[in-house]
Amino acid sequence: MKSLHRRLLLAAIILLTIALAAFLIPIIVMPSGPYPRLMVYCAHDSIYAEGILKDFTARTGIRVYVRYDTEATKSLGLVELLLREKEAPRCDLFWNNELLGTVRLQKAGVLQPYKGSGWQRIPDAYKDPAGAWTGFGGRMRVYIINTQRMAADPAKVQEHLASADLSRVAIAKPLYGTTFTQYALLHRLWGEEKLKAWHADCRKRGISEVGGNAQVKNVVASGDCDLGFTDSDDCCGAMDEGKPVAMLPLRLDDGKTICIPNTISIIKGTKRLAQAQALADYLLSAECEMALAKSESRQIPLGPVDEKALPEDVKQLKEWAAEGCSMAGLGPDADATLAWLKSVYVQ
């Protein structure tokens, strides 16, 4: 009898093990195939994006898996990855921290148009008319000025830029990043020949070309340069550090400013379209724009928000952004500008 009991107990254990294995195997193997959670590629800094994405999950129950870019590759690494994955996409939504990489993806047919509530609240200047991408949380192209070296006055800035010696003026190499966006906008405004002539003249007068906007901030904050072209978030960072700097908006010939948005895009072929649309609308909401505005990066709300609740420095930035030039339709100018810049910088 004891032997029978042991055999029955052993059989029960085997059956229970098989049942548990049948239940657990799908959970174990799911990550090797399509992600069970909403997959987001994010080029914005994780310290600013992580809390917002966690809040979305808490509110909706939609789990989010995030792949962040590295500082070394900026947003380029994720753009290249999305291009490689075009035929078998793993990403559902792309949060880019600039525009022109997103435009590349649009041209390559990687993006799924969507005109939801978030798209509706953003001004036309900062979104694709077809809904392939929508901008939010912008940053300005600005002059950063060392106030111990020169006055933060628009006339003084232009006088300095017109001088024969630009060795104390800093700019990032324009092949990448927001300096490249600035060049693409100048290409649209001026045409290629005038842009080439201006660029050659600046280099002839000894303008100081550095590796990126953060380096521009550093050389101006330290007093090695008097003036530089950079982004508002970099300049705000220097101000927070107590550096003797001020900023003024960079204005184009027509008086327009340059505000470069973050962009949200849904990836064509996503199997979680409804969840991706829900996240897109959340990220493009007034609440999320306000959260980014109150962060250290001072991202500028592009849609309507409660302006009384904005930090004082962001109120000024929002006024400048209201005068921003349109970012729509910049793809052809970006392509032409990049082809020319590669001939200059890539040997």
Describe the structure.
It is a single chain. The protein has 347 residues and is α/β, with parallel strands linked by helices. It has three domains: 2-31; 35-138 and 262-325, Periplasmic binding protein-like II (D-Maltodextrin-Binding Protein, domain 2); 139-257, 3-Layer(aba) Sandwich (D-Maltodextrin-Binding Protein, domain 2). It is built from 14 helices and ten strands. The chain has helices at residues 2-29, 46-60, 76-84, 100-107, 117-121, 154-161, 177-190, 192-204, 213-221, 232-240, 273-283, 286-293, 312-321, 331-345; strands at residues 38-42, 64-68, 93-96, 111-112, 134-146, 169-172, 208-210, 227-231, 245-249, 259-267. Strands 1, 2, 3, 4, 5, 6, 7, 8, 9 and 10 form a ten-stranded mixed β-sheet that branches. α2 links the parallel β1 and β2.
Outline the secondary-structure elements.
Elements: H1 2-29, E1 38-42, H2 46-60, E2 64-68, H3 76-84, E3 93-96, H4 100-107, E4 111-112, H5 117-121, E5 134-146, H6 154-161, E6 169-172, H7 177-190, H8 192-204, E7 208-210, H9 213-221, E8 227-231, H10 232-240, E9 245-249, E10 259-267, H11 273-283, H12 286-293, H13 312-321, H14 331-345
Parallel strand pairs: 1-2, 1-3, 6-7, 6-8
Antiparallel strand pairs: 3-10, 4-10, 5-8, 5-9, 5-10
CATH fold label of the largest domain: D-Maltodextrin-Binding Protein, domain 2
Could you give the order of the helices and strands?
A: HEHEHEHEHEHEHHEHEHEEHHHH
Tally the helices. Answer: 14
Kindly provide the radius of gyration, computed on alpha-carbon positions and rounded to a whole number of angstroms: 25 Å
Tell me what portion of residues adopts beta-strand conformation: 15-25%
Shape: globular
Identify the CATH architecture of the largest domain.
3-Layer(aba) Sandwich
Q: How helical, in percent, are the residues? A: 40-55%
Structural class by SSE content: alpha/beta
- Classified in CATH, the superfamily of the largest domain is Periplasmic binding protein-like II
Query: Distance between the terminal alpha carbons, to the nearest Å?
Result: 87 Å
Average the pLDDT over all residues and give the rounded result: 88
